[in-house]
Amino acid sequence: xxxxxxxxxxxxxxxxxxxxxxxxxxxxxxxxxxxxxxxxxxxxxxxxxxxxxxxxxxxxxxxxxxxxxxxxxxxxxxxxxxxxxxxxxxxxxxxxxxxxxxxxxxxxxxxxxxxxxxxxxxxxxxxxxxxxxxxxxxxxxxxxxxxxxxxxxxxxxxxxxxxxxxxxxxxxxxxxxxxxxxxxxxxxxxxxxxxxxxxxxxxxxxxxxxxxxxxxxxxxxxxxxxxxxxxxxxxxxxxxxxxxxxxxxxxxxxxxxxxxxxxxxxxxxxxxxxxxxxxxxxxxxxxxxxxxxxxxxxxxxxxxxxxxxxxxxxxxxxxxxxxxxxxxxxxxxxxxxxxxxxxxxxxxxxxxxxxxxxxxx
Length: 361
Prior knowledge:
The chain has about 350 residues and is of the alpha/beta class. The protein has helices at about 10-15, 40-45, 60-70, 115-120, 125-140, 175-180, 185-195, 205-210, 220-225, 235-240, 250-260, 295-305, 320-335, 335-360; strands spanning about 1-5, 25-30, 50-55, 75-80, 95-100, 165, 200-205, 230, 245-250, 265, 280, 305-310, 315.
């Protein structure tokens, strides 16, 4: 039997296509109600030393983790991949990529992850590097990123100064807790201004924060004490196209900036830091290899995640997913009725989540 902990109800069907090798009848989601003990509930559902365990992200289930350790049970951590969907995860949008990590998870630098192991140990073949280059070029050509929610449009900023992008993050996100010691978006803005005093700083709030789904809002007056401008409902590529550098805690935007040849400053320990490609405020001794950009892309986008085809929901390679994302993105941007349908779904999803948060309080 296979036991899944910390997976929200809406994820139950969405993640099953990523596990075709598991008998769906033997997949058990452990979702305790109210004050029910998750470990005893799992035992009642048959958890034993022959089970396998899957935990969403970096959620903590101490008793389950200790049980797995004592009985040498395989334990995997699962999280959204780096090219996820057209809509936001916080709007309960179907993910098209996941990472399933047997060592740790990519955003937690306190322990080695499968991604870190791949980047440290893989001897990248010329064929794989050529493939990585094609993937990178496709992402740039089609202006694809993790969520692909907002349409890209040309931005013009009237300045002769170097332009620095500061991407906001979800402040209660595990990548901030484990990779940036709980740093806030306002602290990030202060550091960016300190390190680039002569730059024109553009602050872009995180999409999940912007729509009110997650924590991390910075009051506009406070943000503009350190930033010159705030941009919101515009595609990431629109901002990356005009910026010279990116300052980030652990955001995936830093990785996407590297793909576009931008200078990147990190203040936490994201998965792409420490390989000789970024300017890092912190270091991590385990990351001993110096990587080329193509090697980082090959490990991060080709070897590490699992992908499903948006049309068939069957496992596929990244190239198939990218074609599917591009088609869905075009449909979203060109069809008013489809866009309206998605926005209405998102609206009601957000209202339901607000009610659920209120009930929890």
